[in-house]
Structure formats: C-alpha cells, structure tokens
Amino acid sequence: MNDQVETKNFLLLYISEHNFALPIESVVEIIKMVKITTVPKSPDFVKGILNFRGLVIPVIGLPELFSLEYRNEILNRAIIIVSNNDELSGLIVDDVSDIKIVDVNKIDKPSKHIPFSQFLTGILREDDDLIFILDLKKIITFEELEVLKSSVINLENKDNGHR
To answer: Is residue 125 classed exposed, middle or buried when 0-12, 13-18 and 19+ CB atoms within 10 A define those classes?
Structure first.
C-alpha cells in the first residue's frame, strides 16, 4: 500500500482580506511596488507596463480583476513577477506571506457560485481558513496579452518617432 502524500508548493498572498495562493513554480520574483507606465485603452485591471530586467511586461491589479479593495497603501503593496507559458507578467497584491507545502487532497474544486471562480484552480482547506488557488492561464488570456503587446509596440514606436 502506498501511503505517500502528493504535495505541491504554493506562494501565499493576500488581496484585501482574502488569502490566495500561486503555484511556486510560476513565481519568478517578488518586488516592491515600482513605477508603472499606464497603457491607453487597456482594461481597468491592467495597471500598465513595467521594465523588468530589460523586458517590458504587463502588470495586472488582482484586486481590480476580482472587484476587491486594496488593504495596503500603494507603496506597501507587492508585485509578483510570474511566468505563464514563457510570458512574464506582474501581479499587484496587498502582500505576500510565505511558501506552503500543501497536500493536494486538501484542494477542492471551486464552486461556480464564487464571484471570481473562473480565475481559480481550486480552494485549499487549511484549518479554519480557505485559500483561493489562482489559475494564471485565466488571469491574463492569450488574447489580452496580444492586445497589450501591440499597445506596447505602438507606444515604443511613437516614442522612437518623436525623438
């Protein structure tokens, strides 16, 4: 009989008063809030773009995406740089906590009745808390990424043309 427990590592983070988690293998780096350049005609949850190690990457405000309020002042927030299908993006959150090793049997499927369930892969039952596990593939879709890339290229071309 095999008594091994299948585990997975997650980065714990906070948005408003809620606990969320990201698979640790998708996290590239966690940085303090930095200047973000806004992108015209982008959705409200797309806060803009930033220069990360010479790469221009989109930045998503998770509270805006989930219709939640920020808990922390802007300078106390964090940006989690994540890799999704070899594309980097930044996710603004109130705070990050630690890394948690999770028994995958404690993860339930998200109920469709949760307002932002389409962005979740599961819900972790942890003592008296519930932790929402984020699905990066659904947070920023391929189509949105293409729109952002074309906006960035247009901004870069405009800047190069006026100098």
So the answer is: middle
